[in-house]
Design brief:
heterodimer; A: alpha+beta; Translation Initiation Factor IF3; four-stranded mixed beta sheet; 2 helices; B: alpha/beta; Hypothetical Protein Ychn, Chain: A; five-stranded parallel beta sheet; 4 helices; globular
């Protein structure tokens, strides 16, 4: 099972959502190289849909959604910039 | 890169609506879209120095953060020139990143395969 220890970087967004959520993900992904991964923890109820759409639009990959007791964790892989 | 335009006609008169509009603008620019916020009518006050600092709708991100992050990420802020002038402002009142435009500039942007929303 994937855990945070397998990600190149982690980002805990707490209850942040919508524009703030994707803005912070975008900024965090800037620091990664192609193929590296970012583990995002987000409790916002729309994070699932928003992160999937954001990845489709930006050429990144939503690798998987991991269960988390307090919310959800999303493993993203950086695509070609 | 696709164009995405957000027409915003509110500011201090409707902090809820104005904040949601700028939240969507942040989502758009962070998603790699060529994003433009067109401030018209009361919306132009958002482009005045210090006004964003006065708007923090409960439960939403502070307006000052939204504007700062949006501009830093490359988002454009276009201010309706006649709306701006009729309220007695001058160009030195504008925040960094905002420019005055007329209707033709907006029409050019929106007819160049743009999508948009209005608040």
């Amino acid at each position: 099972m994937e855990t945070s220890s397998h990600a190149d970087s982690i980002l805990d967004l707490g209850e942040k959502g919508c524009g703030q959520l994707v803005m912070e993900v975008m900024l965090a992904m800037r620091n990664l190289a192609e193929g590296q991964t970012l583990l995002v923890t987000a409790h916002d109820l729309a994070a699932n849909e928003d992160l999937a759409a954001w990845c489709r639009m930006t050429g990144n990959t939503l690798v998987k959604i991991l269960p988390d007791p307090a919310g959800k964790q999303f493993l993203l892989r950086k695509g070609r910039s | 890169m696709n164009n995405f335009g957000i027409n915003l006609t509110r500011s201090t008169d409707d902090p809820d609506r104005a904040t949601v509009a700028m939240t969507i603008a942040n989502a758009s620019v962070a998603s790699g879209k060529n994003t433009m916020v067109f401030l018209s009518s009361e919306g132009v006050r958002l482009a005045i120095k210090g006004v964003a600092d006065s708007i923090h709708e409960e439960g939403l991100q502070p307006m000052s953060d939204l504007v700062k992050n949006y501009v830093a990420a490359g988002g454009a802020i276009w201010v309706c020139s006649p709306c701006f002038k009729k309220r007695g402002y001058s160009e030195s009142d504008l925040i960094e990143g905002a420019i005055l435009v007329g209707g033709a500039k907006l029409v050019e942007f929106m007819t160049n395969d743009a999508s948009g929303v209005s608040y």
